[in-house]
Write a structure and sequence with these properties.
The protein folds into two domains: 65 residues, Chemotaxis Receptor Methyltransferase Cher, domain 1, CATH 1.10.155.10; 158 residues, 3-Layer(aba) Sandwich (Rossmann fold). It is 41% helix and 19% strand. It contains ten helices and ten strands. α3 packs across α4 and α5 crosses α6. The protein is globular. The structure holds S-adenosylmethionine (SAM). S-adenosylmethionine binds next to loops.
């Protein structure tokens, strides 16, 4: 039984409407919207109804149908959860600095090529944290072919990452030395903002990419970060995705997943070598 709807709601969200959005989002993004996500769907999409001056979710379903080219993006941007922070799950960056990067340097001496993918990068804090780690612990990266690819399905977060401007409170947990080295403080109207150093920006390519669609990049990647993304997908979708990551990773390449995620039972092509750290079996 769906939970009873509170009486004084601004818009009615019928079972049919909810099923429409659940199927639409599921098909396009892999995100599973269970019955418990009804409130989330209501909350995230009502803003759009107000903007369009629509009076019911039924009307909005019709609007999405007739304006699919543009409106699907609005629905997806609204439904995705983009929570992130600089150096979130710090132990991955320690592992990158002390284990992965030294191994890759030893392995790729001929090609002098380093490829890292932040898949589901949200507003950019994750790829910038990767770039800081690379720049701080692998000074020779400038003489290597070094690229960090940062992708997300949500066009708004990609634009934000590309811009590299954040409220200064976002870097409050970063050491003062790091903050001085990698962030420029805004002045005047931008007094409470920081801008990421162009030296980090030039290492990163931000691209909109749906993990459920085709991937134009050839790889191989030395490291893939896919953290706090697959938690929204069902197991068969996770299995397919991990398989595709294994295909694109270099042998013995690393995959970092989020704190509540695991490949347990979803892939035999990786071995667990640390807390939420997997290595592709060569
Ligand atoms: C909670 S954020 C995680 C951000 C970052 N990886 C971290 O751990 O801090 C999840 C991100 O996955 C993205 N995402 C969800 N489904 C996706 C899909 N099918 N393709 C690409 N990105 C997706 C969302 O847009 C969102 O920005």
């Amino acid at each position: 039984m769906p939970p009873a709807q509170p009486r004084e709601r601004e818009f009615e969200l019928t079972d049919q409407d909810f099923t429409y959005f659940r199927d639409l989002v599921g098909q396009h993004t892999g995100i599973t919207l269970g019955e418990h996500k009804r409130q989330l769907v209501y909350g995230r999409l009502s803003r759009r109804l107000r903007e369009l001056r629509l009076t019911s979710f039924g009307d909005y379903c019709q609007y999405v149908e007739t304006h699919a080219d543009t409106e699907l993006t609005e629905v997806i941007n609204a439904i995705t959860t983009n929570l992130t922070s600089f150096f979130r799950e710090q132990h991955h960056f320690e592992h990158l600095a002390t284990a992965a990067l030294p191994e890759i340097q030893a392995r790729n001496t001929r090609s002098r090529r380093l490829r890292i993918w932040s898949a589901g990068c949200s507003t950019g804090e994750e790829p910038y944290s990767i770039a800081m780690t690379v720049a701080e612990t692998f000074p020779n990266h400038k003489h290597w072919d070094t690229r960090i690819l940062a992708t997300d399905i949500d066009s708004q977060v990609i634009a934000c990452g590309q811009k590299g401007v954040y409220p200064d409170e976002r870097i409050k947990d970063i050491s003062p030395e790091r903050a001085r080295r990698w962030f420029l403080r805004g002045t005047g109207a931008n007094a409470n903002k920081v801008r990421v150093s162009p030296r980090l920006q030039e290492l990163i390519a931000f691209r909109q990419l749906n993990l459920m669609g085709g991937w134009p990049m050839r790889g191989p990647f030395d490291v893939i970060f896919c953290r706090n993304v697959v938690i929204y997908f069902d197991k068969p979708t996770q299995r397919k995705l991990f398989d595709r990551y294994a295909d694109l990773l270099a042998p013995e390449g690393y995959l970092y997943v989020g704190h509540s995620e695991s490949l347990n039972g979803t892939s035999e092509r990786f071995e667990l070598i640390g807390r939420t750290i997997y290595k592709r079996i060569a």
